[in-house]
Every structure is written in C-alpha cells, then in structure tokens.
C-alpha cells in the first residue's frame, strides 16, 4: 500500500529541479496555483465553531475568494496592530539587507527552485505591502522603494507562499540579524485569518482540539478504548499487564502527548514505549481525555488560537491536582510549551517544581512552566541506572536521528534524545553535519502542510532531509529514521517511501520499548512492531 | 532599472555638489548647512527609529537556539549559541556584532543530478562583509584626525597601522583598498548570482554606489588631485567646534566628498542601513533561552475564549459514564456546550 498518489511525478522527474528564474520581476509575476502545491481552504463549519471571521465555503482555485468588502482595511488595521504588538515584526520588516544568506537554506526553495520560496523573498511579499502602507519612502517612491499596493493578486500570493512555509526557522540560523521568517509567516497567516483565508488542515484540527481535547476529534470513550487496546497489545508482546490511569485525580504527574501517538502508526509504537516505561518505574501518573493532545495547531493559525488551545494543559493539571506535567514526543507542542505556555496561560503556581520521583532529580530548567520533556526525563533515568536495558534487542535496527525543527531551534534539545538512543540501540549513525542539530532540515510538512493535496510540495520540501538520510542509508545501511515529533512520524514515512525506500520511521521511545527489560516479562521474540528479533548468531555478523 | 536608477541618483548627487560649488558658489551651503543638517537628521532619525522599535513590546520570548539548552548538569550546554543567562546573551550578541557569527555558518547548496545535494562552506560573503565593515570603521576613525586638535593618540596609531605598507607617498591606506574591493565584491555578487540579483532592490544598490562614490572621491583627493588639506582641516575643525568658517581655495572635489557623506548620513536612519541598530534589538538573538526556567510577561496578554472542562464534561457525560471514566458531576448541570457540536465525518 502506498501513501503516494498516482498523480505525483516519479522521483526521477521531481528530482530535476528547475532553477530558472522568471524573466519578469517578482512583483510583476503573479502566483499560479500549481496542483499538488497548495492547501485546500478551511470548511466554514469548523471556522464557525471557532468563531473565526468570514466563514464560508470557497476554494483557492475559485476566481472569487468571497472576501469581505473592506478586506484591505481589515488587513491594514491588522498589520498596524501587529506592528505595535510585536517588536519582532517591526524590526524584521526594517532591517533585512537582502544579502541572500538565507536564500538557499529553505527546503522548499531547494526542492522547488521557486524564487518566492527563498525566505527573503517570502518575507518581501509582506514587506512590500508594509513599505507601501507604513513607510514614507514607500508611500512616495512606490516601486523604486520596493513598495507595492495590496491587491487581490498579492493576497493570493500570500496565501500560496505563507502556506508554503513550515515555520521551521532554519533560515534564521544563517541570517546575520536573526530575522525569523517563521515569525513573519506566523503573523502573515494571522492577517490572512482576519479575512477568512484559512487552510483546512489547521482549522479542522483546531476545532477538533477545542471540542474534544485532541486534534483527531476522538471523544473520551474512544480515547479510553485506544489506551486499553494498547495495554492489551503490550501484554501480548511482553506478558505484562500495565495500568494506564485516565483522568485520575491526585496523580503525581499528568502526561500529555500528541493524539496521533494513540491512533496512528508508527506513533503507536512510541505509545507502547511510554506505557512500558511508566509501568516499570512505577510512575504515579495519569492520562487526560480533556487534555488529550499535546500538538497545538494554533501555532499554525494565530497567537490567539495557540492560547485558546493551550489553556487546557494547565487547566487540567489544576483540576486533577497533579504536581507537574510530563510531555511526550512532539515537535510544535514543545515550541508552544517552551516559548508561549507560561506567558500566555501561566503562572503555573498551583504546580510544583518538577522532581523526578524515581531519581530525585530536580528539573531546574522547567522551574517555571513545570513541564518536562520525556527525553529529559528518560535520559535522567538511564543516567541514574534506573532502567534495565538490553540494546541488542534493537540490533535489527540501524538508526539515524532526525532533529525535529521545533525542539532543535526553539529549545535546543539535542543531547538528551541522542543519549537515550545510544543507550537503547547499538547501531547509531549521524547524518552529515550540515543537516542535523540546529541546521536540521524540516520534514517538509510541518505547520499544517502535511496534507495530501500538498503532496508534491511535501516531497519537494522533504528532499534535503531525504537526501541526507539516503547518504547514511547507502553508507551505513541505516534502516530506521528516528524522530521525536508526531508530524514527523506522520509525514516522514511517505517521504522515505518516495525518496529512500527501505528506511522505516520510528520514535525514540519505540526503541526504548524494545530494549526495556520489564520485571517479570516473558521472553521477547518480537519487537513492538511484531518483527522478529535478531538471533544471537545473526547479531554477530553485523 | 533597479541598478541604473541608483547609479544615476549617485551621479546626480555628484553633479549637484559640483554645480553648486563651481557654478553657484554655494560653498557655505555645501560646506556648513548640509553637513549640519545631515548630522541632525542622522542623530534624530537614529533615535527616532530605535525608539519606534522599542515602543513595541516583545510579548514572547522567541529565542533561536543554535546549540544545546541548559538541562542536566551532566550535559554540556552551549552558553553562547543557546544562552540561559545575561552573560551568555552578551557573548552571543558580541560574536554576532563583532564577528558576524551567523554569516560565518553560511553554506552554499550544490545540486547535482540524482538529485544529490551537498553543502559547501561558503565564506566569501562573511569575509567580504566583515572586511567591508571593519574597513569602514577604520576609515571613520581615521577621519577623526580632521576634527580634533590635538589628534588623539589612538587616531594616529590607527593611521600608522593602516598606512603600514609604505607603498607610495602619501602612504597607501589598506582600509581604502579593502573597502573598495569589498564593496565591489558585494556589488558584483548582486549582479552575478541570479538569485541575489532577483531579490535586489534599488535600495540595495544605492548605498553601495554611494559608498563607492565616497571612497573614489576620497582616494582621488588623497592620491591624485591633491587638495589643500590645511584649508579642509580649518573647515572641519570649525564644524566640530560649532564655529564654522569656509576658507577659500578648497577644491570642488572635497565638496563632492562631503556632500556624499552628508547624504549617506541623512539616508542612514531611513534605510536598510539601520540594520546597525536593529541587530541589537533582534528578539531571536538578544534574549536568554530560559523560558521554562523563568516566567516572561506579555504586557498585552488578554483573555480568550476557551473550552472549559465543565463544558466538555457536559457534552460528553454519557459517553464518559459508559466508558467508566471519573466524572465531576453525575448529572447534567445547566451548562450548555460551547457552539454547535460537530460530528466526525
Ligand atoms: S539572511 Fe537575513 S538579512 Fe540576509 S536576506 Fe535573509 S533575511 Fe535578509
Ligand atoms: S521558516 Fe523554514 S520553511 Fe519557512 S522560509 Fe524559513 S526555512 Fe523556509
């Protein structure tokens, strides 16, 4: 079964990247919506549910986008407001010198050759309008000063290109002034939101999340079933029946992970890892149905939406009376938790500074938010010898690690995941230096772009990542790409299938699940995927 | 168009100064009025722009982390690329401002058939930018010699250093050569690399031409068309002391030079050249990445509509009950579910 639709060109074709620039100036080159490279619009019922402006059913391919009559005024006012609220936006609008250092750093530019995917030009799409409306030179000199009128064509261009940025921040690593195109994209998307130009793949998850607590729209009983099912499955593999409390008041720790972990594959194997780990160390924790999602699609929509969706985490921690919160493997959830949660919805003074009940380690770096990342937690357990691990049970895996953009470039979480992997797996190989850590390449599908209608762009944008994986696949026989982000786990498999067949995708705690020796477990013959473990003899050959 | 317009503009500026002095005898205007006005615009503009930026708050701490965060004591954190303290932030900013650290990271993409990608370490832009800025600084400081009596020792020292290679009489300044070479490189880069040409605006060429014009007029004055340095110094010292006088016999070339400097100063605050001020204010680099350690306040934080647990339980009570999940309330209260329930498709 393939995730790649028939209509997508073959890798040999997609790999020929057209780097020809248009003859006309970029301001005079209107956007052409290419099939496979844009996102469908949000359905009105989801927008209405969230009280978002201008709910209606429309398609980007329509000539008439059914904009409100005074849409120019709305955007102008919106931009004015944001300039006064965000120094980042103001400074970033003014100080770019167009040196182009960021130009070939964006995976979408690399994979598509489309000049408007150069971060600097992506920002110029907004900057040109800013100049026209908010700078004297732009008002007087117009085009000579790089200013242009906000027309429907410009707005369409915004829609196409700002929903063609995964907000991965790679470009900003190289910018001499730290201009963060992701921040510009976020604010540009807010402006688009003001006139009702939203994409389906962010608004439906937001609405679901708002209503049911998770973006898949799973209702409480469905959630309970799913966890129950995982408990059964883990019992089959290990012979141990674990306890997985849900909505348990007074538990010490609330555990929140992206909802894909308990429904989608390969995320699911990571879930088995959490369950096994928490059982083995006897953690007093609880799941929550109300806060059954770590991922926050508000990050791809608006700051206000981030806050509305994120509020659940603290509210639920308070209701359940836990001491602190533990968070699972997720990318953008962690950007929100790390950079926004405490400011938006704190102070979390009803919680306590996180202390590992097993090792006594104080997580001082989470003193204020009271939320700890699972790899921080697990690496501490391993460091303190609290786990019995048999890494040889992962000998059938030759692993490499994909730094997910958000934990990498918003937290700087590099060593903990590597420490865990090295302790649970004997064969670990790094991808080339320019493609990992803060220079990591995006999966090509973050920020709400992981939808199927956008598949061609995803594959193009994912090319740099895939290229680096192919390098270690050919050189070291790598057969699994590990990551700690739910979007990665969803979108890297088709990417691998397309560019680097023969490489699976897995989570860090999946390999923990394989290696972890549970007290009283039966002899394991398969890993958590049901794949047979390598026998002693085979292991020696490797 | 994008290139010629700024070129013509700079040539026109040269023409204006020449005509003003040669034909209209506006020495006082070009020697005194314009420089003072330019300085006022520069200082006023600089303050205005920085204050304007600073008026907008930094609601969220969006530090860009380019190295390991501070967590466990047994994991080495990156104090400079992912600072968690003020000292680290100062270090990070100093590296950026003094050594252009981020540009130093620059790589160039190589795209080969296959497709195969590789990334080459690309240091020319970094080198040229660094050379350009330091040469500029050097020249600026060296010029202090025209505005001070006695000339401070460090200015003399710089002078010595800069003219270290006694190639010609007067000594050829290294900084002059470096500035012209680097600016030329930066200009050529803009017209040779198609992508960079595509993103360049007239506003990118104009300052380059202006600076090249400045450098050319300065070099011509010093090495070829010798001007009366004593007279110039009388004028500049007078300007610095706010007792301006215009001595006779200063060549027109000097007025061209001075006019271009004035234009550059006046243009500075309202252009991309303000990156000089902006780099200090960039929220991705000038904040410590201690978001989870310390609370950061958003001055305009406002309440938003959320979905409360009570509303949630109200909507799903029966299902939760059937699944044996704990409830806050056994029976329905008078809460209404928020909005229309959506059914899953
Ligand atoms: S690297 Fe920074 S300054 Fe240079 S073009 Fe990109 S955004 Fe502008
Ligand atoms: S944030 Fe990422 S996707 Fe967006 S422009 Fe920068 S590199 Fe490209």
UniProtKB/TrEMBL annotation, chain A:
The keyword Glycoprotein does not apply. InterPro entries: 4Fe4S_Fe-S-bd, 4Fe4S_Fe_S_CS, Cys_rich_dom, Helical_ferredxn. PROSITE patterns: 4FE4S_FER_1, 4FE4S_FER_2. The keyword Membrane does not apply. Keywords: 4Fe-4S, Electron transport, Iron, Iron-sulfur, Metal-binding, Transport. GO terms for molecular function: 4 iron, 4 sulfur cluster binding; metal ion binding; oxidoreductase activity. SUPFAM superfamilies: alpha-helical ferredoxin (SSF46548). It comes from the Bacteria. Residues 87-116, 156-185 form the 4Fe-4S ferredoxin-type domain. This is (Fe-S)-binding protein. It comes from Abyssobacteria bacterium (strain SURF_5).
UniProtKB/TrEMBL annotation, chain B:
InterPro entries: DsrM, Heme-iron_electron_transfer, NarG-like_domain, NarG-like_sf. GO terms for cellular component: plasma membrane. Residues 324-345 are annotated as: Disordered. Residues 122-276 form the NarG-like domain. The chain crosses the membrane at residues 29-51, 124-144, 164-188, 208-225, 245-268. Gene3D superfamilies: Transmembrane di-heme cytochromes, Chain C. One of its GO terms (molecular function) is electron transfer activity. GO terms for biological process: anaerobic electron transport chain. Keywords: Cell membrane, Electron transport, Membrane, Oxidoreductase, Transmembrane, Transmembrane helix, Transport. It is found in: Cell membrane. It is a multi-pass membrane protein. NCBIfam families: cytob_DsrM (NF038037). This is Menaquinol oxidoreductase. It comes from Abyssobacteria bacterium (strain SURF_5).
